[in-house]
Input
Amino acid sequence: MLRNLLQLKLNFLFFLLTSLWLIGILWEVFSSYFNSAIILLPFLKYNFSLVCHTQSEKLFNIGQYHTLVCSRCFGIYSGVFIASFLSLFDLKLNIKSKLFILTSIPLILDVLLSSLNFYQYSKLIALFTGVLLGFIGYFYIIDSLNLLFNKKVVVKP
Output
């Protein structure tokens, strides 16, 4: 019971943090509704540029506004957000390393093939491969952390 309560609190914390992260990514959209919020935009643009290349032609557009990270990063963070939301309802997926690697292959192939000009960069493909990796990656990391913290350490004299 106590372990379940602790897990629920951790799930809520992850959900809260990913929610705040996504709000930051979508700050330009929010600032169009709340004019005073625009003051934070340069600070957020700088900080998100530390985790993403933020090339303007690869930013995801929402109407006339765009995200503060590229479509692929927006997909990854959205996938993590969706997974963290579902984990609030006790959804657990036991993700093995093979599945995590398998779901990273579409993203890696998209990066390679579009970088080598086999096809033109697609924001939708980048978004989709990012969501897939972010969703599966969240559960893989959570499972790994649970294994790490639940591991019994036996000290022999």
Notes: The two ends are 33 Å apart (CA to CA).
